[in-house]
Design a protein that fits this description.
This protein is of the alpha+beta class and 784 residues long. The strands form eight sheets. Strands 6, 7, 8, 9, 11, 12, 14, 15, 19 and 20 form a ten-stranded antiparallel β-sheet that branches. An eight-stranded parallel beta barrel has the order 21-22-23-26-27-28-29-30, surrounded by six helices. Strands 5, 10, 13, 16, 17 and 18 form a six-stranded antiparallel β-sheet that branches. Strand 22, helix 4 and strand 23 form a beta-alpha-beta unit. Helix 6 runs parallel beside helix 7 and helix 10 runs parallel beside helix 11. The longest helix is centred in the last third of the chain and has 23 residues. The radius of gyration is 28 Å and the shape is globular. The two termini are 42 Å apart.
Length: 784
């Protein structure tokens, strides 16, 4: 609910309050954002207003009429340089006379439902009455500019969105060099700034930085959200934990260069900014033109990182993800990449698909290598025509044979890229982002098409429409495998080269918008060299994103834990792959690879044709279990317990909306000798409900026990011998069984005390086999 009280605006959600007022000079002063407080009368605001009598020393005063303070020492809703505030600004521009001073003052405000378009940018949405919009108009009368500050209030979701638009109402050109989406000023700086950084195959490394002074920047200049620095960030008090303490989460609905800045001023105030990265950004605003910043959204929770995360998860599922697949169960897929790489043929793919069908797979995906002369990554991107040497009947015949098996058919594409060795590049060398006639920095032997150009957008839309229409395509993996270099559009004049990156993102969104409109029932999955473009902007079109090219279960446990701070499980796809792992060469148990991938949108990326009978039996059981509990895992409420950041264990729980079912996971990194005791602590259960608590019944090969087999064998067996392997086909070691009933509060607060782990002193069916990287799934069900 949005209310105007005197010269202040109060934005209330179910459990939070956000308030700001207009200072006598017309500057918007931030007053409060946190848990709900009562504000009913202008007098109620007095306690929140910072008191000023004499300005501090060595500062600049905006105007004589208000000489008691400097804008450098005021909490503001927006800021600019030139009038005293020397902190990181919200907006910057170069004016027709070369000046850079902007002086925006309050003019008026209008409260409506959310209605203003975002000029080609995606945004949050809701049904009628679910959200309100406040539009505050700020005016710079010296240069005839308008700045519109937008606030979107989702009351039930406890989320507030922000955006901004600048309008050139003058008769002169203006060069915009910065327009952020969200600014939040705090009156103290006792916070931890949490970012999620990394690189290819090691995305989402959590970084906690104590704010003491100066500026900390989390940004991307790769042309994408980037695996180097995700655009989701948090602010929390130093003693905040998973279930207690003040925590703020911030998201940007944008898929290009972004910047999040946390700055502590000389007066101890904290400013948080998020928006388009101003580095090398500029935008020409002709008279009458306007520029729209992307939407950002934020939430506050008094119950720690977990409380903040669950608000973010619910908001993204309900108000960001949309379309046919929004609430539908996502199919279990088998992807051909790590099984075949580029070496595909119709017969080989069909053999793999049949093996997948036998194991319970629902969707078969043909990855890279199906088009042009694509035998490696040096050619053919842009030439989206099936390779008839590999697929004699094209996609249509292959897809028919796969769908005749009872599987859905999926395809991999990389529409934004072009190979120099391609018919498309030879025909249109000017369609790429590169400086003509100058050496170009290559990435993965490919170049980026200039999506800022309308004709390039039309080509992508037309070529992808042809591919998706040529066969019964149910799923598309949309990849993007390199970052930007040599920012330059051959269609723009020199003075507008700062527009290249943003124009690209707008063009990308147009392509995605049009193709998802034409093919509403295709399940699109975003991918960009793994998690290089994982953001709410993509989720406005594609309901799920490939989290990382690293499928190592140990790495993925960390990566998926850290995605979960800002993203729901239903938006992250994860695959079970072969061992040794193709990215780390690490060996992890098949059960653990499944357990980690199950807490996401499950898929497989290994060669079922090379799997042993025992492995296929295990995979068949995994898929059956996942399908049975899929609604809980994909649409349930997610809770983190202990994590590898804290020690040797990671603990996850997912609970159904009605709290009658839950799935838990406990995983350890390294086995500790002579350590038998573990307890699993679920979260989110109904205290008064009684749950049947079980685990999967597992058996283990005697090969896993090595020479220990001789402690029970009547004759000596040489480890790894023919006799050892032959015996392993007939003799299995039973694992422990957890099977009891308990109330939710006993499970959560007392913990499920598990059967003892193997400690080197004996093993039978009552001992838990729990070596390095071991895990367990626990099932909790009230529906007895």
């Amino acid at each position: 609910m949005i209310r105007k009280i005197g010269q202040a605006f109060v934005l209330d959600t179910a459990h939070t309050t956000y308030a700001f007022s207009i200072l006598p000079g017309g500057h918007p002063e931030h007053l409060y954002y946190g848990r709900t407080i009562h504000i009913e009368h202008p007098d109620d605001l007095e306690i929140l207003v910072e008191k000023h009598v004499f300005a501090p020393g060595n500062v600049n005063i905006c105007e004589k009429e208000h000489a008691g303070f400097s804008l450098e020492d005021v909490r503001l809703e927006m800021s600019s340089y030139g009038k005293g505030d020397i902190r990181e600004p919200f907006v910057e521009a170069i004016l027709y006379d070369g000046a850079k001073t902007l002086d925006f003052r309050y003019e008026d405000a209008v409260i409506t439902g959310k209605k203003d378009a975002l000029d080609g940018l995606p945004g949050s949405y809701g049904s009628a009455g679910e959200e309100q919009q406040l539009c505050v108009t700020m005016v710079d009368r010296q240069y005839d500019l308008k700045l519109l500050l937008y606030y979107y209030v989702y009351e039930a979701a406890d989320v507030i969105g922000r955006s901004a638009k600048i309008v050139n109402a003058s008769s002169q050109d203006v060069q915009l060099t910065r327009l952020m989406s969200l600014q939040l000023d705090f009156d103290d700086s006792d916070y931890i700034f949490t970012t999620f950084r990394g690189a290819w195959a090691r995305e989402m490394h959590r970084c906690d930085q104590t704010l003491t002074g100066g500026r900390i920047v989390n940004d991307s200049f790769t042309g994408t959200t980037s695996s180097r620095a995700n655009s989701f960030v948090m602010l929390s008090r130093p003693k905040t934990g998973e279930d207690q303490g003040d925590c703020y989460g911030f998201h940007l609905i944008y898929s290009g260069n972004h910047c999040e800045t946390a700055e502590v001023s000389s007066f101890g105030k904290l400013r948080l900014l998020t928006g388009i990265n101003p580095r090398e950004f500029s935008w020409k605003l002709e008279p009458g033109a306007q520029f729209q910043a992307p939407e950002a959204f934020m939430t506050y929770a008094p119950d720690g990182w977990g409380g903040m995360s669950r608000r973010m998860h619910a908001f993204i599922r309900e108000h960001i993800v949309r379309g046919y697949w929004k609430n539908r169960p996502r199919p279990v897929l088998l992807n051909s990449w790590e099984a075949c790489y580029f070496d595909i043929s119709e017969s080989r793919l069909l053999k793999l698909a049949k093996a997948g069908k036998d194991a319970g797979i629902e969707l078969f995906v043909v990855d890279d290598g199906w088009f042009g002369r694509r035998n490696d990554d040096t050619s053919s991107l842009g030439d989206w025509v099936p390779n008839t040497k590999k697929l004699p009947g094209g996609l249509s015949r292959l897809a028919k044979k796969i769908t005749d098996l009872g599987l859905a058919f999926g395809i991999w594409v990389e529409p934004e890229m072009v190979s120099v060795d391609s018919d498309l590049y030879r025909k249109h060398p000017d369609w790429t982002i590169e400086i003509p006639g100058k050496p170009h920095a290559e990435g993965r032997n490919q170049r980026i098409l200039d999506l800022g150009r309308r004709e390039v957008q039309e080509y992508i839309i037309a070529s992808m429409t042809k591919v998706f229409s040529s066969a019964p395509v149910s799923y598309v993996k949309w990849d993007m495998n390199r970052t930007f270099s040599d920012y330059y559009s051959q269609s723009l004049p020199a003075a507008q080269q700062g527009e290249v990156a943003h124009r690209y993102v707008l063009g990308l969104y147009r392509c995605m918008e049009e193709l998802t409109r034409r093919f509403p029932e295709i399940l699109f999955e975003g991918c960009a060299a793994g998690g290089n473009r994982f953001d709410p902007g993509i989720l406005c079109y594609f309901p799920q994103i490939w989290g990382s090219d690293d499928t190592d279960a140990c790495c993925r446990a960390d990566i998926q834990t850290n995605y979960s701070y800002g993203y729901p499980l239903s938006t992250v796809s994860a695959h079970v792959s072969a061992c040794p792992n193709h990215q780390t060469l690490r060996r992890t148990p098949l059960t653990t690879r499944f357990a980690v991938a199950a807490f996401a949108v499950l898929g497989y990326e290994c060669n079922f044709c090379d799997c042993t009978r025992e492995e296929l039996e295990e995979i068949r059981a995994q898929i059956a279990l996942y399908r049975k509990w899929r609604s809980v895992l994909q649409q349930g409420t997610f809770y983190r317990g202990r994590t590898f950041a804290d020690g040797n264990l990671t603990e996850w729980t997912c609970v159904s909306e009605d709290q009658t079912q839950a799935v838990g996971m406990l995983m350890q990194k390294l086995a500790e000798p002579n350590t038998q005791f573990h307890a699993y602590y679920p979260k989110g259960l109904a205290k008064e409900k009684r749950y049947h608590f079980t685990n999967r019944a597992l058996t283990y090969s005697i090969l896993e026990f090595g020479d220990l087999v001789n402690t029970v064998a009547p004759v000596h067996i040489r480890p790894d011998s023919v006799t050892h392997h032959l015996l392993a086909k007939f003799v299995k070691m039973d694992g422990e069984t957890e099977d009891f009933c308990a109330y939710g509060d006993a499970l959560m607060y007392g913990g499920a005390h598990l059967h003892p782990a193997f400690g080197g002193t004996g093993y039978d069916e009552n001992v838990r086999y729990f070596p390095d990287f071991a895990s367990r799934l626990y099932l909790m069900d009230c529906n007895l």
